[in-house]
Amino acid sequence: MQVRTVNYKAADAAATLTDSLLNTGFAVLENHPISADRLASIYDAWGRFFASDTKHDFLRDPVTQDGFFPFKSEHAKGADKKDLKEFYHVYPWGKVPEELAQETRMIYADLMTLGIELLSWIDAEMDDDCRQSLTEPLAKMMESSEQSLLRILHYPPVDGGTESGAIRAAAHEDINLITLLVAGSKPGLQAMDKSGQWQHISCDAGMITINNGDMLSLATGGVFPSTTHRVVNPDAHLNQSRYSMPMFLHPRPEVELQAGFSADDFLQQRLKEIGLK
């Protein structure tokens, strides 16, 4: 599984990104506009939030799905055990703790801008048949969308009483068009290759992993694969908190991924499948 590392500033960046997403469902972006120091600062700030009791004042709204989700709130589609994580959902209209709001909303906006730019690269590089099969260009699907989700994840240290078979994030595919996954504070991300073997996805501090979601796969008739991935439990010597920050790019709810099947239809179906609705 040859996940390509894409230099954001290189002349062939769009072609390299698209080729890697077509062949593996994943790519790693380097030399992009969001600095590693800035990302580390955000992880530190949210780490303090997860370590405090005030997080329970921001419990998620079961209708709008914004706010804090306590430990073991979610399971992967088809999984019988809850993931070993807690997390916070940020939407442009949603609640964010006051002390975190400015920095978090700025990174949300910057990741959104970067993500739409990457979708425009994919629009330009995909073949004509794939382009013509779309109901509209991928970047245009994002116009005026307020559905994109920034999820700040905390995977606590795994204790000895953990249920057998439970892991930090069980095997799953993402729901959305593409995900921009800011490098985790610790290793653990793996993706399944075409032979069914798990491969480590390495991503140094400051890099961003890009992966296809199910909506992109549906919209392109499977041309862009939505690759199964997971976050495994740490080895004993690395058993520390892990933080991660994926930005899930979601189109407007009414966008048709396939004839008669909208982005919102698919989202509501998947939320039920993973136990959040």
Lay out the secondary structure.
Layout: E1 4-7, H1 13-24, E2 26-30, H2 36-50, E3 67-69, E4 86-90, H3 98-125, H4 128-133, H5 138-141, E5 149-155, E6 169-172, E7 178-182, E8 189-192, E9 198-200, E10 208-212, H6 214-219, E11 229-231, E12 242-249, E13 256-258, E14 261-262, H7 263-273
Parallel strand pairs: 1-2
Antiparallel strand pairs: 2-10, 3-4, 4-5, 5-12, 6-11, 7-10, 7-12, 8-9, 8-11, 13-14
Helix pairs in contact: 1-3
Helical percent range?
25-40%
Q: Please tally the β strands and state the result.
A: 14
> CATH architecture, please?
Sandwich
What's the quaternary structure here? single chain
In percent, how much strand structure appears in the residues?
15-25%
Describe the structure.
Helix content is 30%, strand content 22%. With 277 residues, the protein is an alpha+beta fold. It has a single domain (4-273), classed as Sandwich (Jelly Rolls). The strands form 3 sheets. The protein has an 8-stranded mixed sheet. It has a 4-stranded antiparallel sheet with strand order 6-11-8-9, with no helix packed on it. Strand 1 (4-7), helix 1 (13-24) and strand 2 (26-30) form a beta-alpha-beta unit. It is globular and about 50 Å long. The two termini are 35 Å apart. The model has no long low-confidence stretch (mean pLDDT 93).
List keywords for this structure.
8-stranded mixed β-sheet, single chain, Jelly Rolls, 14 strands, alpha+beta
